[in-house]
Amino acid sequence: MVQTVNETDRGAVPAIELRAATKRFRTPSGGVYTAMRGLDLTVAPGEFCAVVGPTGCGKSTTLSLVSGLEPASEGQTLIHGAPVDGIDPRVGFMFQADAVFPWKPVLDNVAAGPLFRGVPKQEALAKARDWLRRVGLSGFEDRLPHQLSGGMRKRVALAQTLINEPEILLMDEPFSALDVETRKIVQDELLALWELTRPAVVFVTHDLEEAIALADKVVVLTVGPATVKDVFTIDLPRPRKVQEIRFHPRFIELYEQIWASLRDEVQLAYARTTGTEAIGAA
Amino acid sequence: MTALHPAPLRSETMTTATADTPSVSESELLRSARTRLRRRRLLVLLAQVALVAVVLGGWQLGADQGWLDTFTYGSPSGVWEQLHTWFTEGTALGSIWSNIGVTMQETVLGFLIGTAAGVVCGVALGRVHLLAEVAAPFIKAANSIPRIVLGSMFIIWFGLGPSGKVALAVVLVFFSVFFNAFQGTREVDRNLIANARILGASQWQVTRQVVLPSAMTWIIASLHAAFGFALIGAIVGEMLGAQAGLGQLIATAQGNFNADGVYAGTLVIAVLALLAEFLVTRFEKRVLRWRPTQLSADSAL
Fold first, then answer.
1. Interface subset of B 169-198, CB within 8 angstroms of A
2. Model ipTM over 0.90
């Protein structure tokens, strides 16, 4: 039932590697909260890895560690074989909430990365225009973020992240705030853009359908503290159309397998939040 | 995509809606809304004029009829005459414009220095937690001093010239701006900072390009009050001892038991304060252009 991928088969140095990573936080009341315990995760260069798990299980913590925003309490985080020490310029991060700068017009938002990194202004703006064209937002250069729809803001965020041409792309439920139809369109756009530069991706989501439709590999995390429960290879053909791949017989097969693994964790997490026993584990 | 939604149901509800109100077009709705708005504005304006007329008229009537002692309470016509004298013949301390100039110079200088210092310190302490922890007790202690007493200290330090007044204005402005800048810096969306850091921003770039614009909402809110404080600082400083300025003018009038003079000085200051408030609001609108404009209930049709 469970398919575990032997990562060493892929050869080469993995783009991302978490080795027995543990992350603890101090709670405001003075206690200690363990978000992640002994988590192992490997993502090959150019691989699209989706991480699913129940709400609040510590999915996002994996991204904090890889991005260098937070150090691991124990264990190791490696990027291309080297330990992470602070924020790595090869990493791009797309946040769950809107993180585009609300006071900057769209063009300046997209150009922000190169400008921060010291690219000359004209060059950065030209590059930003090019990326806006790629995400289909030509003509919106002078708009402010609040003048755009949610889907358009996500595309700005996508362009803002990808303009730095990251080798590693971290995404934290980036499309969860979008309505279902818009989400599918933006997902397709993400796949098309990903094909261009092929960064290694860690895509955190609680939407299993999204995970299977996008990824090469789906990692199921346990209810917190997070550890890896199962890893599934998604052997669906590429290029994919998110709207259509859902009807592929293999998609449905994979969905059933992964859901069987995920279900127990989701129910456990639900029981914890409500304080009741897990019910109807049918 | 909308074509896929149950279209018949939708068009049905649409037709019933239009069938109910076939005569009212959008432009008519807008026009009637505008008429209502105009009427309302006129009503408000009339009520305001009436209020002023009742208060000033009552005061004048009381003074004329001898119900109010004009020596103690003055009268509107007395205030008017005083203003007329000041603006045509000048005051005991020179021309009124030079007095206004002195006070405004002290106020604006105090406002600018105090704001700059408040923003720099507020953002620095907001960003560097260690600095905030070290400075916290001292700032609390300094803030607990009633700042008017500093006026006396500044007169000893700086003498009767304008620098003591500027110093008092700076102190008053500093704290009001400082606390807002500090709070604004602490409230910056952590996602925005994380995003900027990952996009490649240095700490200084984060401060300049993310924290400052973000905290600007808070800082500008404090500027409204801050200009008032600067004016208070300048005027109180002048009242405590000065050679010129509106505060000194009022203090002189007070010394001569000239009630009309006190009112006239107050009026001039109020006009200046309103003017400044107008300018700060203009500045606010310019700087905070990026914020979405909210639909107000007033604009409802």
1. 189, 191-192, 194-198
2. no
